[in-house]
């Protein structure tokens, strides 16, 4: 069995919220000349393939690449954290209802993660509770920052408390990469900014005391944890060398949290994956492909298959670790 924890989906039709709400750069989808275009206002943001919104195409490609289950989450550009909270609450509910409907039609092949308006904690908690209790989702996806603010902000602590109490898994995905305005050329926000952004999120949760105060949280990070695993030595050295700057909110060594969270396997390089397994551990890595986008792994889990690993370790990476992160068992589904 192979569970891909990092896949994105969007509805085939979306309201034009920019027209409805009268402001902003909300994304909607238009089908033009046999192409599907993600639109911001009247400008094309990105062309997407049918596998981004048609589950029949998705299921066919899953079968072709031996993926048993996809964990579905929304595309980060649709978080809408920048919008008025009530409007982001409405768009979140729309995306969550679509994912829940998709899962209900193919419950043996899909697991859904919700999205919430994290710029307003009370609304975010309310929608998270609906996702878990009504839509039967095991978790939600959130961004690596909230309008430039780190995930360690104290105002977010009630959200983490609620997620821990609900047993709601969190999938943290980079978005709105820091410094992207200064490095637009060469696709650098995606090549350089995303790994740094994910490390920023991990470090914020560690140094801000979130993982210490809410030990029951089950958190997974996209893209192999970004640059965090590969710069952990520097991070730990900084913690020890300048505790006056680093350990101001949490005096626990960042290395002590390695077994406290999960990462996906999306690192694109055999030696990097070997290092990731050595650093993060065989119990805390899950297959993740970033399907259906071109920067992802086109055959999910292929890199893991190429490694000379014991069968029991591959079983952990392919499915068992994902089940523990999500708090589910495949047989119970």
Characterize the structure shown:
This protein has 333 residues and is an alpha/beta fold. The chain has one domain (3-7, 54-332): TIM Barrel, CATH 3.20.20. It has helices at residues 17-21, 55-64, 85-105, 121-133, 157-166, 188-207, 210-213, 228-241, 243-246, 270-280, 302-306, 311-326; strands at 3-8, 27-32, 35-40, 43-48, 69-73, 110-114, 139-143, 169-173, 219-221, 262-264, 285-286. The strands form two sheets. The protein has an eight-stranded parallel sheet. It has a three-stranded antiparallel sheet with strand order 2-3-4, with no helix packed on it. Strand 2 and strand 3 form a beta hairpin. Helix 3 (85-105) runs parallel beside helix 4. The protein is globular, with a radius of gyration of 19 Å. The two termini are 14 Å apart.
Give the name of the CATH architecture.
Alpha-Beta Barrel
Uncertain stretches of 5 or more adjacent residues: none
Helix amount: 25-40%
- How many distinct folded domains? 1
* CATH structural class: Alpha Beta
Number of helices: 12
Number of DSSP-assigned strands: 11
CA-atom Rg in angstroms = 19 Å
Report strand %.
15-25%
Distance between the termini: 14 Å
Major sheet strand order = 1-5-6-7-8-9-10-11
Note the run of SSEs as H and E.
EHEEEHEHEHEHEHHEHHEHEHH
Name the CATH superfamily classification: Metal-dependent hydrolases
Question: Helix/strand-derived class?
Answer: alpha/beta
Question: Which topology does CATH recognise?
Answer: TIM Barrel
Overall mean pLDDT score?
Answer: 95
Report the sheet with the most strands, covering strand number, pairing sense and barrel closure: 8 strands, parallel
Write down the overall geometry: globular
């Amino acid at each position: 069995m192979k569970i891909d924890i990092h896949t994105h989906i969007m509805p085939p039709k979306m309201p034009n919220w920019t027209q409805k709400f009268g402001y902003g750069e909300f994304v909607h989808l238009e089908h033009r000349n046999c192409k599907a275009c993600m639109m911001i206002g009247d400008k094309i943001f990105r062309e997407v393939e049918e596998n981004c919104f048609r589950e029949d195409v998705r299921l066919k490609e899953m079968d072709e690449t031996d993926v048993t289950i996809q964990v579905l989450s929304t595309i980060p550009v649709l978080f809408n954290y920048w919008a008025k909270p009530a409007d982001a609450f409405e768009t979140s509910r729309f995306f969550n209802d679509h994912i829940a409907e998709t899962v209900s039609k193919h419950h043996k092949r899909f697991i859904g993660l919700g999205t919430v308006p994290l710029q307003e904690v009370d609304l975010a908690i309310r929608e998270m509770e609906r996702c878990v209790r009504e839509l039967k989702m095991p978790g939600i996806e959130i961004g690596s920052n909230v309008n430039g603010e780190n995930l360690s902000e104290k105002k977010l602590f009630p959200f983490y408390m609620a997620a821990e109490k609900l047993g709601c898994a969190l999938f943290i995905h980079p978005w709105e990469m820091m410094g992207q305005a200064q490095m637009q050329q060469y696709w650098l926000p995606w090549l350089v900014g995303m790994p740094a952004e994910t490390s920023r999120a991990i470090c914020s949760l560690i140094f801000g005391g979130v993982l210490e105060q809410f030990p029951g949280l089950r958190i997974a990070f996209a893209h192999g944890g970004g640059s965090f695993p590969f710069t952990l030595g520097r991070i730990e050295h900084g913690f020890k060398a300048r505790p006056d700057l680093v350990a101001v909110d949490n005096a626990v060594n960042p290395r002590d949290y390695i077994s406290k969270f999960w990462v996906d396997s999306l690192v694109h390089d055999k030696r990097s994956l070997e290092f990731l397994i050595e650093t993060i551990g065989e119990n805390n890595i899950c297959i993740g492909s970033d399907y259906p986008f071109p920067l992802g792994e086109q055959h999910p889990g292929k890199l893991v298959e190429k490694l000379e690993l014991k069968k029991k370790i591959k079983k952990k990476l392919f499915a068992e670790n994902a089940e523990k992160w999500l708090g589910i068992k495949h047989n119970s589904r």
